[in-house]
Amino acid sequence: MTEELNNLVSKIRVKSQTQTIVKQQTKEVFNKLKDNARNLVKEIKETLGEEAKNAKLEFENISEYEFHIMFAGELLVFNLHSTILNFPPEHITNKSPWVQEDESRGFFGVILAYNFLTDSLKYKRMHDTGYLISRLFVNKEDHFFIEGLTQMSFLYPDIKSNTINDKVLDDYLRLGLQAALETTPVMTPFEQEKQISVAEKLNRSMLGNVKKVGFQMISSKEDN
Known about the structure:
two-stranded antiparallel ribbon; alpha+beta; about 220 residues
């Protein structure tokens, strides 16, 4: 076997092993997040008492890759991404000496959180808009990086020090719920809705084209 082929085989072996470990770690984190979400909903229900019925607070396990939290007309959708990803070289994580020491620490599994209106999915309002409110990145050593939730981005800026634990996951869930509550559903302009075709009418269910405003996502891009 030539040296070139040996190098190629070695790189394939390292990358495949890293991806396998990161997938396993991220799946475990996602399952913990799911359990914590179930417990959080239960805790809030107990606190609300009879009011929980009006809040329509529910946890729903959709699959091993997705779960939902519904509350007060809001729907948070949590997804486990199937692909292991890396950031561009200029990204803040790749500038960390800890990551530069071992490049495999720069590969991440991703958990995404989206906010929709509950009625948008219930009535299949295809033109309603949902928003990505956060992304939780997990590497092979259970270190994490967060985009989207301002408070957590500021609390956990250094990936070397950021390790997953129950407090981090609980904060992540609570701040996600808070971000959804701080947005406001708004109707599209009258002129935009003034005319609709028969096809649009038949494809709509209840009131459509609702957008939410008020939440701003913090990205991980550095100011140049």
